[in-house]
Each structure stands twice: as C-alpha cells, then as structure tokens.
Specification:
rod-shaped, 72 residues, binds zinc ion, alpha+beta, 1 helix
C-alpha cells in the first residue's frame, strides 16, 4: 500500500466522506486522492470490470471495422 502525504482534511475520492486520519491504516492514497480502504477496493473492482468491458467493446469495434472494411 502506498503511503501518501498528510493532507489536513482528506476526503474519500469515492464516497466524499471525510477520512479520519486517526485511522489512516483504513485509508488508501492513490493518484493524489485518498480513499477509504473499502471504497478503494470497490472502486478497483469497478475499474477492473470497466476495463474488462472496454476491452470487450474494443474487440467488438474491431470486428465491425473488419466487417465494414472495403478490403472484405
Ligand atoms: Zn469512502
């Protein structure tokens, strides 16, 4: 887990609730944004799914490109 700078009033980048720095072990710092560990995990899951989906969509798009290509 990456350790981030001490922000005076960190707010969770996902649920927008204040993160209590007394429980900083429950927080994750990523891309200059603080997240609750649980929120970060949820976001990571969603991102993973979104990435998978975009890969699938890209494949579909590629298939369409091939089909509509003048060479075929
Ligand atoms: Zn949160």
């Amino acid at each position: 887990m990456q350790d981030g700078p001490l922000v005076p009033d960190p707010v969770c980048g996902r649920c927008n609730k204040k993160i209590d720095m007394a429980v900083r072990t429950e927080a994750v710092y990523q891309d200059e944004i603080w997240f609750h560990t649980a929120c970060h995990r949820e976001g990571a899951d969603q991102l993973f799914r979104a990435t998978r989906l975009s890969v699938v969509l890209k494949d579909v798009k590629r298939g369409v490109d091939i089909i509509t290509s003048p060479l075929f």
